[in-house]
Design a protein that fits this description.
The protein has a single domain, classed as Rossmann fold. The chain contains seven helices and seven strands. The chain has 258 residues and is an alpha/beta fold. A seven-stranded parallel β-sheet has the order 3-2-1-4-5-6-7, with helices on both faces. Helices cover 44% and strands 15% of the residues.
Length: 258
């Protein structure tokens, strides 16, 4: 991440919060925001995962703060946003990319609790973080809420994960209808899979197979990168995308045709 010239920055003087910023997707989005001039607040349950992200942003000339936040906890989320407003004086962008603790098993085999877990987690965290940001944004008539994942074709063996993604999209559409008249936009980033974000613990042969499957499903014979995610997130949050709301931005490299 390299911070650009002030005159060229899409998010100069903007304040952004990123939940799940310690993971690869969250880091990419946070760095994308910071590279375009935003002051970024990194939220997550493990500070040791957040600090390297903050240090990288600062080393590149950006501004970043970290906070221990459980994005499933109503008090934690509300207190975090209140503190951001107290320190920064405003909040323009909220992005939530936390994991949903999904268990991948066929529906005939999965337990009820494991099936429901990602659906409940996804709905709860996206509702809480959006509401906390929107309560301030409606007073200024300006703001952008970004989610990640999107809906799409069902696949066998995913347990409740696909249903969770659909739930988030339904919630996003509902928020878009209610918040649009107040000047707030809601956008989902959809990639179809990012090989760079695969766990380091994954065996090389399994990593290569997954990468080949993801890339092979695209029209461009390549998939989105983490840098792509950061760049598109910054665009989506900027005034250049002021006409985009209530929808997905398709970054699947043609794997999903609209």
């Amino acid at each position: 991440m390299t911070k650009g010239d002030t005159a060229d920055m899409l998010l100069e003087n903007k304040v952004a919060v990123v939940y799940g910023a310690g993971g690869p997707i969250g880091r990419a989005i946070a760095e994308g925001f910071a590279a375009q001039g935003a002051r970024v607040y990194l939220a997550g349950r493990t500070r040791t995962h957040l600090e390297p992200v903050a240090e990288a942003i600062r080393a590149a000339g950006g501004t970043a703060d970290t906070a221990h936040v459980d994005a499933q906890d109503e008090h934690d989320v509300d207190a975090f946003v209140d503190n951001v407003l107290k320190e920064a004086g405003d909040l323009h962008i909220s992005a939530n990319v936390i994991g949903y603790e999904d268990v991948h098993q066929p529906l005939l085999e999965i337990s009820l609790d494991d099936f429901l877990q990602p659906i409940v987690n996804a709905s709860r965290t996206q509702f809480l973080t959006t509401r906390a940001a929107a309560r301030h944004m409606v007073t200024t008539g300006d703001g952008v809420i970004i989610t990640f994942g999107g809906s799409g074709n069902a696949m066998a063996g995913l347990g409740g994960f696909k249903v969770a993604l659909d739930a988030v999209e339904g919630l996003r559409r509902q928020w878009a209808c209610e918040l649009g008249p107040r000047g707030i936009r809601l956008v989902t980033l959809r990639t179809g899979g990012i090989p760079e974000s695969l766990p380091d613990s994954l065996p090389d042969d399994e990593r290569a197979q997954i990468t080949s499957t993801i890339d092979g499903a695209t029209l461009l014979n390549r998939s989105a990168t983490l840098a792509d995610v950061g760049n598109v997130a910054a665009f989506a949050a900027s005034d250049l995308a002021r006409s985009i709301t209530g929808t997905e931005i398709n970054m699947t490299c043609g794997a999903v045709l609209e």
